[in-house]
Amino acid sequence: xxxxxxxxxxxxxxxxxxxxxxxxxxxxxxxxxxxxxxxxxxxxxxxxxxxxxxxxxxxxxxxxxxxxxxxxxxxxxxxxxxxxxxxxxxxxxxxxxxxxxxxxxxxxxxxxxxxxxxxxxxxxxxxxxx
Length: 130
What we know:
Elements: E1 9-10, E2 18-20, E3 23-26, E4 29-32, E5 34-38, E6 41-45, H1 59-63, E7 70-74, H2 84-92, E8 96-100, H3 102-114, E9 119-123
Parallel strand pairs: 7-8, 7-9
Antiparallel strand pairs: 1-6, 2-3, 3-4, 5-6, 5-9
Pfam families: DUF498
């Protein structure tokens, strides 16, 4: 599966070069919509609003919890609270969850990736970069 074949998966974790206009740029590609970045690659994420962030919508991240120390959740243009059941479930697996606006999540994700840290990101797409 690859991104260009429309499968919504790029098989390598990648820094994010840009965000805004409803999507992200990474690995010389453009993606419309929300995105999950994991050690196993980049995946389309069918979440458009913080209210849609659930354990079910984060199941791909939970499945990779053994490979991740930190999960950054980009909640859109503003910070939104993450339900305690999500935080508790990831804490039980040894994963720290940080929820911030998408722009802050992208910047922190890139720094942690550059430091070779075990980081994941679940990012709601935004229209305007901040």
